[in-house]
Sequence to fold (510 residues):
Amino acid sequence: MLFYLLGLVVLLVLYRWYRETKRVSPADKYVYITGCDSGFGNLLAKHLDKLGFCVIASCFTEKGEEELKKASSERLTTIHLDVTQTESVSRAAAFIKTKVGGKVNKMMKEEFDRLPDADLMKVVRCMEHGVAAVHPRTRYSPGWDAKFFWIPMSYMPTCIADYMLLKNVIKPAKSVSDVENIFYGVLQAILSNLLSLILASIAVIAVAYYVRDSLKIGSIDQKWVLVTGCDSGFGNLLAQQLDQQGFNVIATCMTEKGSADLKHVTSPRLKTVILNVTDSASIKNAEEFVRTEVGEQGLWGLVNNAGRSTPIGPTEWMHLDDFKKVLDVNLIGLIEVTLQFLPLVKKAQGRVINVASILGRLSLTGGGYCLSKWGVESFSDSLRRDMHHFGVKVSIIEPGFFKTAVTNLDLIEKDLRRRWNQLPAEVKDSYGEGYLEEYLKAQSFSMNILCSSDIAKVTRCMGHALTARHPRTRYSAGWDAKLFWIPLSYLPSFISDFTVSALLPLPKDN
Ligand SMILES: NC(=O)c1ccc[n+]([C@@H]2O[C@H](COP(=O)([O-])OP(=O)(O)OC[C@H]3O[C@@H](n4cnc5c(N)ncnc54)[C@H](OP(=O)(O)O)[C@@H]3O)[C@@H](O)[C@H]2O)c1
Fold:
């Protein structure tokens, strides 16, 4: 059996090597590269030019253009590009269109200025493989540090990654005492004797984890919690539950109606404030209100829950503004609210709880939603590491699919139909006449199976993050998140790509 398995592995490696060595012919193939004044872009332009590709290289300065022209063949053309200027980008796009005519071109944007690894050719070789290989890979990780340290570390449980990153960091003057670090010390001891300890300690660790996880904080009636987006959904239910538990809740709502409805079903202790997370003045106003209410106690909990999902759908159907609409609420709004309220949370050595999604682990569709939730994951990771020294704990909630306004199919479908009707005929044609109906049918089929109406699963996670003495870093709510989406996000991209594409219809021009 072992022999067959080894043989299979060798065959797979050989097949992969053979596939990877196949290259497309460079003749008449246009490649557009931005940021060619220096670094990777410059080196890649010269390298591809030598291989025979028709390179169009954009530079920021005239000097860069001249030097590059001198160092390459006549085939290579240069163009001025300032990516911060819309006009400059349009001019470059028009130039490339006339140059390549109907031919397909590849766009690459690489702007890496400061990398510790001086062997830039490692990066250029990867780029060249991406451009010229018949079967380009989905992801390349040039550099030994990426391959052997950063990428493996990104797959480790956050407690290990945090321990390794925090180990050698210089602590701020007002750092919380080392008692907080005992967990990491114990973890290190366990890891260093892992093999000898593993069997004997599994049961002990499981019991210890359970006990640790169930320890609760005290004096709930003296603690203040702010929850955003309480008109409906998770935020609304959480505000009610925290109020019943005795917390001093300040619930932010978008509308007066949402605020009045919530007050109607809660105790007089619960306060509401109108907050639009995309409006800085509104955030400042809410912060002043909260500062006066909480006084010297500070804010124990900040639950960043407000969010929106639409427009959501195939990337090609979106405009830049569609991305901004969602990012402004789910990411930029969340960051601005956090920054405004952080001093109050720091005062209470409290908690920040950010609502991300499994779509922050695996991008299932286009539009700003998945992007925003990946951003929330990343922002929360940085915040957790930075605030660790001050006793502030940061938790991320990753719900699967739940029946709320965010997953309301009527709203999503209405938006998609409007978009489809506005698409250019050429784009519609590439998807095929019946694509929209098939897409909506497939979406409604999977959402009806996946969406759970038990939204208390999510608020229980939020409640744990607020009341546990040791809140978890990540909470995945719902069976679909725990058993399907999160495991899938750890698998190689060809498996997740295959699974995700099986959920939706194929365009006509597939
Ligand atoms: N439902 C799911 O399957 C699911 C899965 C993963 C993550 N999430 C996340 O969970 C969070 C809560 O969503 P939900 O499912 O409970 O849906 P929801 O009922 O629509 O709740 C979102 C809340 O955010 C509010 N909101 C929207 N834009 C805002 C803005 N600019 N400023 C302040 N508040 C704003 C909404 O107010 P209006 O009602 O007035 O618009 C609503 O009260 C969101 O961050 C969402 O992305 C949901």
